Each structure stands twice: as C-alpha cells, then as structure tokens.
Amino acid sequence: xxxxxxxxxxTTSGGDGTPMVKAEAVHKRFGHLEVLKGIDMxxxxxxxxxxxxxxxxxxxxFLRCINHLEKINAGRLWVDGHLVGYRQEGDKLYxxxxxxxxxxxxxxxxxFQRFNLFPHMTAIENICxxxxxxxxxxxxxxxxxARKLLDQVGLAEKxxxxxxxxxxxxxxxxAIARALAMDPKLMLFDEPTSALDPELVGDVLEAMKxxxxxxxxxxxxTHEMGFAREVGDQVVFMDQGVVVEKGEPAEVFTNxxxxxxxxxxxxxx
Amino acid sequence: xxxxxxxxxxxxxxxxxxxxxxPGRWVAIVVLAVVAAMFVHMLVTNDAxxxxxxxxxxxxxxxxxxxRTTLLMTVLAMIxxxxxxxxxxxMRLSPNPILxxxxxxxxxxxxxxxxxxxxxxxxxLGILYGRYELGLPFDRQLGDLFGIDLDARxxxxxxxxxxxxxxxxxxxxxxxxxxxxxxxxxxxxKAVDPGQQEAAHALGMARGPTLRRIVLPQAMRVIVPPTxxxxxxxxKDTSLLAFVPVTNELFFQLQAIGARTFxxxxxxxxxxxxxxxxxxxxxxxxxxxxxxxxxxxxxGPARARAQAESVGHGH
Lengths: 269, 315
Known about the structure:
The complex is a heterodimer.
Chain A: E1 21-30, E2 33-43, E3 48-52, H1 59-66, E4 74-79, E5 82-83, E6 86-89, E7 92-95, H2 98-105, E8 108-111, H3 123-134, H4 139-152, H5 168-180, E9 186-190, H6 198-213, E10 218-221, H7 225-231, E11 234-239, E12 242-247, H8 249-254, H9 259-268
Parallel strand pairs in A: 3-10, 3-11, 8-9, 9-10
Antiparallel strand pairs in A: 1-2, 1-4, 4-5, 6-7, 11-12
Helix pairs in contact in A: 3-4, 3-5, 4-5, 5-6
Chain B: H1 23-45, H2 51-57, H3 61-93, H4 97-112, H5 115-123, E1 131-135, H6 139-146, E2 153-158, H7 159-162, H8 165-190, H9 194-202, H10 207-237, H11 250-261, H12 264-293, H13 302-313
Antiparallel strand pairs in B: 1-2
Helix pairs in contact in B: 2-12, 3-4, 3-8, 3-10, 3-11, 4-8, 5-8, 8-10, 9-10, 10-12, 11-12
C-alpha cells in the first residue's frame, strides 16, 4: 500500500499541542429530547478514539455535530482550533455562511453506516465528484488519484461499476476512498460495519486499520470491540448523553470502573 | 473430509405434464371477438363515417400546418413548464420562507384555475392594457407625488403585437404546466434518500451543487414517468387553444373543415386518429428517456440490462 494514506497527520500529541477535536460541555436537543448533556472530549492529532455505548446514547449525534451536520445548542466545539459552525468576535458568536461551513466540512471525511454512495455514479465517479466539484481538481488528475485510492482499499478492478453491483463491504470501502479523496485531516466513522454481513466486516476494518497505522486522526463509533482494543488509542464510553468513562482500551475493557460500563461490556463481550 | 468426484449423473427426463386448462380465457376470447366484430361491422357499414372523405381531407396543407403548430406548442410549453417547474420546486424546498411562500402561492393559483379559463383569460389580456411597456415601476405615480412630469418608459409594444394568439396560448399552457411540474419535481426530490444530501454536504458540497449533481439526477428517475404523462396531456390540451383563439392549430383546422363541408363526424374521427398517432410517438420517446435515467439502479450490469430490455420491447 502507498503511504499517502493519512494525509501526513502528525503522530500522537501533535507538536503545537492543538487538539484536532475539542468539545466543551456540548449540548444537543431534538425538540424536548436532550440527546447530548454536556460532552467534554479532546482528540489529539493522530489519535484513534473509539466511541462506545448503547444505541440512543448520543454517539452518532456527537459525531454529526463535529462536521456540523447537526447544530449544537450549547457548549463549544472546535476542530483543529476553529470553532465549528460559528465565528467568535469578542463575546459574540456569528453563524458561518454556508460556503464557510462547506469549506470546513471538506476537510473532515465521514463514513456512514448506510454507505450513502451516489447510486447514479460509478465507483470512480463517486470518488472524483467532490475533488472535481469542490476543489476544482482537473478531471484527469482526480481520476488518477481515485484509481490509487481504489487500489488501496483493494477495489482497483471495480472502478467503473455502479454501487448497486457491489457488495456492502465493497460499497463501504468505496465510501472510505471517497472520503479520503478530499485529503481530510480527520475521519469520522459512524458505525461503518453495522449494516454489513459478518463475513464482509473484516475487509472494511482492515482498510480502517491501515488508515490508523498511517497516522490519520479518527473518531469511530462502532460495536467492534476487537477493533477498539487493537487500534484505539482511547475508548470513550457514552450513556444517555454523557461521557461515563474514558481511557486506554486495555484498561477500560479489563477494568471498567463504572457500573454502566460494566453492564454494557458484559452484554456485548 | 475427503472429496470424491461424483460420477456424472444422467440428465433427468424433462417434465411433460398436462397443463392446467383455463376455460374462462376461452369464454373471454369469444365475448371480445363478438364485440370487436360488431365494432368493425359498424365502422364499415355506417355511411356517416365517410372514410374516403376523411382520408382525403385529414392530410390537407392547413391540417399539416395545424399538426406543426400543435407539436411546436407542446414542445415549447413543456420546455418552459419543466424549466420553470424545477425553479419553483427548488424555491418551495428552500429554507427561505419568502421564496417557499411565493412558490406555494404560484402553485396554488395555477392549479386552481382550469386551463380553458386560463387560456381565454390570456387571450383577452389585451383588454387590460393596450400597450405593454418596460420602465421604472410606478414612474407616473412617483412623478405625480413629487409634482414633476416623470415618464420613464424605455421600450413598449402594442398588446396585439406580442399577445398574438400563439403567445397568449403558449403563456397560458406553460405557466399552468409549471405549477404541475413543480409538484412533480418536488415529489421526486423528496423521494431521494436524505442520506444522499448528507453525504454530499459531508464532502463539502454546498446546497446548489448538491441539488444539481446529486439530488436532481436521482430525482429524475421519479420525475420522468409523470413528466411523460404530462407531455402527452399537454399535446392533447393544445386542442383547448381553439378558445384563445389560435386558429392554425390541429383541432381547430379539422373542425373548420368539418363545419365548412357539413361533415362534422368524419373530421372528429380524423382528430382522434391524429392525436392517437402523435401520442404513440411520444410514448416511444418516453420509454428511452426512462431507461436512460434508471442507470445505476437495480442489479446486474446496467448495459446488459438495457440491451435485454431493448430486445424484449423491440418486437
């Protein structure tokens, strides 16, 4: 595999000490339902953070707040030192314009549970779409890069195939390649293997491990404990909209301190 | 486990069973055959049809001219209708309440007023103003207000020059079509999985490109079949242009021949045959357009499937 995977992010605890993601008391409500009740978190460049928790605990919502697919109601959220969705002048917050939000989203890759590939485009067109439309990369250069990325996720021969003709695992790997085509500095994975048949999970996890080894900063919502243990620098356990426990995987898995973590782990392991 | 090579088994005999009988089908065939025979008998024996006269007259130059006008009107009205419809649908789905409100108002008005009424109304717009001019809005009122003689009109035309029957008819049909198309386009865009928009946004694509590149092409699959129906309905609705009036249109011409020669019925049959022929051509076009926009959906290689389809329908 080539080494340009990972966009050259710095190794753990980056030089200037700016965290890639920083959350302070993040709250999110849907109507009267409070989904996030004050999340504090710090993800350093090059770190792989795995979010664990039962469904409904707010993991996916928090992930979607990071690239502003959801607006937070209170607290502060920074990506690479920049406030997400707002600009601060003095004490006042100004909403960012759509263009500015799009620009910051372009630097964050996201992989969805249901893949969300564009069904009317072939695999390679899916990958080229954003670089060509957003970054105005020339078509030939984009296609060349896309072929390299497809090769890296092991799908070189599927370039001209429509998503409907790919298996779930292959679709998800194309989706990862599509996100990487924008050279993101941060990758968000929202239960990337939950919609897959068990025998297809391995290939997707392998692509993600490769990415982690190359130093990509990653936040992963998953139920794959093996992946969390092997690749995660930190696991964060969430329950009912709050962070209950966080720490190194070995420590949290073998020695959970909170009752709720224990209960969750005993159900899932 | 040991893998033993299974011996080549004899191909079993093909099944030959007595098929289930369908007596109901035979009854239906007999009934329909009798009805069809009665219908043909009527066509042949009833002198009122005047077949010779009909065929002699249904291809006369004014009728052919009428066919041309009808087709041109259909195409132009649909182009304007679809284009404006897409714009109105986008306005309707916009987060801006002014735009979506204006779009709602437009759809409400043009769907509520019957096409015939609309066409007659547009045909009589000349009553409203004799001249249509382009200039500063409310220039004379403002002039009165400030006590000066202000007349800021740059360009004007007589109502009769611009609002010819053709223009009035086209305007009426296109504007009303846009209202229906807006609803069809809106339904199509709403049918696209919201995850598609989310994925595009997550890649840094803004609202405009997301709609144009991701949502609309997928919505087309839902939009095209009803648009085909709309086109066929539009072709038929051009017969309403007689009320504007537009005199060089197909139905008007056929009726005129009928009225002049006192052979009303044969010319009405001729109209049926013309509209049947024209809509049949449109349906073939619709088939190919639908196939184009369904690419990437369903399983199996798209091209092979398309070929299989064209073979299946090509006999």
